[in-house]
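Why run this: before we spend reagent on co-expression, it is cheaper to look at a predicted model of the complex and decide which construct boundaries make sense. The entries below are exactly what would go into the expression plan.
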Amino acid sequence: MTSPDPTPRGDDVRARLRALTAADPLPPAPSGAPTQPLPTVGAPGGAAVPAHPAVSRTGREDARRPGATSALAVAAARYADAHGVLPGPEPARTRVRWRPTLASVLAAAAALALLVGAVVLRTAGTRPGPPVALPVPLPAQTASAVPVGAAVPPPSAAPTPAEVVVDVAGAVARPQVVRLPVGARVVDAIAAAGGATDDADLARLNLARVLLDGEQVLVPRPGDPVPAPDLAPATAAGGGSGAPGGAGPVDLNPADEATLETLPGIGPVLAGRIVEHRATRPFGSVDELVDVPGIGPALMARLRDRVRV
Amino acid sequence: MTLDLRLVPAALAAWVAALVVVRVSPSGTLVACAAASAAAAGCAVTAARRWWHGTRRPARRQAVCLALLAGVAVGASGAAQVAAREDGLLPDLVARGGAGVLVGRVVAEPVPVRAAWPGAPPRVRWALDVDRVEAGGRTGAAVGRVVVLAAAGPDGAPTGGREGAPVGGPEGAPVDGQDRGPRHGAVVRVAGRLRATDAGAREVAVLVARTAAVEVGPPRTWDAVAGRVREHVGGLAADLPGDAGALLPGVTVGDTARVPDDLADAMRASGLTHLVAVSGAHFALVAALVLALTAALRAPPRLQAAATAAVGLAMLVLVHPEPSVVRAAAMGAVGALGLAAGRPAHSPAALATAVVVLLVVDPWLAGELGFALSVAATAGIVVVGVPLARRWSARLGRGAAAALAVPVAAQVACGPLVLVVSGALTPWGVPANVVAAPAVAPATLLGLLAAALAPWPAVASPVAAVAGAACWWLGAVARCAARLPGAQLAWLPGVAGVVLLALVGVALVRLLLGPRPEVSATSGTLVTCPRPPVPAAPPVVAPAASAARRPPG
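The model came back. Tokens follow.
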């Protein structure tokens, strides 16, 4: 490194480059040594030698001052490592760094561990637990009528919505029209009519059925033929009103097979499958009816308005 | 130039791990993770021993160790997420294809489903992040995303055609965007039958809705604000005719519901689809505008960065932070950093870091074509596009060089992936993108400005009209380019074709970035100027000796 250059600036540059090549330290500060002195370095002949290796294409000056040029190359490479690009119009040469140092691997591992920990914790917080059983809705409760009527009493309601009027006839002590609160059962209607007579055949009645407004409860005697219009309400548990073919929706969970068969498109086979299905999985919504084998979207569309849960 | 590819093996390993982890059972993943951790630990111990003995040079062993660690990280987080999805009532229900009621938050805008056959009843699809599921008399919490297929129309009932506006419109365009489905961000309850999705899909199931969704909770505040802005954009777009109105919501907020099928096909054939999906370019554009504005106001750099980040976040909320948008934002940030800072050395490292972080958080991204396209385009731009722009800027000027280099690099990088889906080349992609480029920024930025000004229609309409003109230009470019001869070139099908196209791309890049031919000063003939040699290690040679060895003459 004994290039004959008297100017103090050249000495300064060379001193810095020597420090760069000798000490093998971290790259210098970006605004410091490399950028300012790099463009030109005074050469012995007075000609300005381009210091940038990419610009010095001839190679002759390089050969003459190999120490300085290689130091410049090293400095340029360090600058490129630190800042990505070399000053100057054209990149010298694409260097590829593949191999990380141990320190960077450890730093990356720590960062990854933190990230994974955060993700796993967040996921664990939202992990779904075991399912719980939904409360099965009470069958055949005209639920909306009671609270609405209680909360806002209608000023001029002739038939109070909180009661039903049924005609109790047949084998009872006092056949008559009785008024009962909403939600009352057939057994309540018979009791209100003085109770069944001794010869009544109560086994043919569903005593637990909820009464519908305006229906007739006919208590049969053993030999009586059961009249057709009364068969439907008598057997349709919580089902239709007076008419067969039922204007009211059928409740899927308590209804028996005969009631289910009154639905359009449901025969004995499908009714049996529905009963079988709900024995393991009670219906939570009408839409679950499609889970029953044999009930497709088309049948479902016909049934939707006629069933409920 | 230095390319920092130290994190690239890690990113590739993370990608492979993510592809696997969403398709296998969590227990299997954990076993594999344990094995890989042991291997990584072995590598680390060996490296540490060498370090202790004074060999501190970077080594291949450490690259392997880092790649293994990235794979393990993706595996562990992915296994936890897959396990959470496979827990509870929902997977049970999906497995037997049962019906149930789902309650959850709407996370994707309803988009019309392309009719399966002419005259098919219109349907929309949207997505639900399920919170709770009810079926068979039981209820339970649930995790996962479910695609909902529902009949289009206000009630979710099939509509044969609304009064005054036949469904489909004259060009197959869907009718007005209102009441297509539930609001984004709202908590809804919807019943229907669940179908399983393919293995490895982000969505747990597809719900074929039987009833309309019932809103049981309002959207969060920011979702509501974003929804209002999007409505404003839709309202402004409805006043614009033809393609202008169809494209304005797309280039502004990524809402493609109005884009008719034929225009969508044209944009695909001309390689312009990325303009109407929310891509990294949206975020890069807005970030560049904010940076320029704050720099013009002489704000301190920290304030500039904070303002850019804040606007980026607002943009993220506006276009809904869906996974595709989040990765677009990440890639846009990486690309903007690479282009603006002019430091290509750090760009591959930033890109690889972004890939690893995104895959750890969301391993389902790995299987999505959009993610692959995003990463490929960004990698192409930062690795190939930046040097190309530098190379060409001497002759073309900086702006023009960048405008040309970015689409070239992106097309070269994305070509093989596009070939996988479409099976055809789009040779007009680069010219179409270059021709369309001047209109992209006005369309996006003025569209957003118009949306912000929407409460004052007198101001907003002219701004929207200018943005609409830019959108019309985009649409016209797409339709023209799609009609040019050779717009869809057939190419060798299958894996061989993809590999061949990738090789062609590499060769093209090599040609474009290779040594520059120069006219020799002495002979006047065209010669190739070789790269100047850079000595690997500084040879210690005395000046006298060097002078002695100098060749004579």
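The longest strand of chain A covers residues 163-170. Residues 240 and 246 of chain A are 4 Å apart (CA to CA). Bring this page to Monday's planning discussion.
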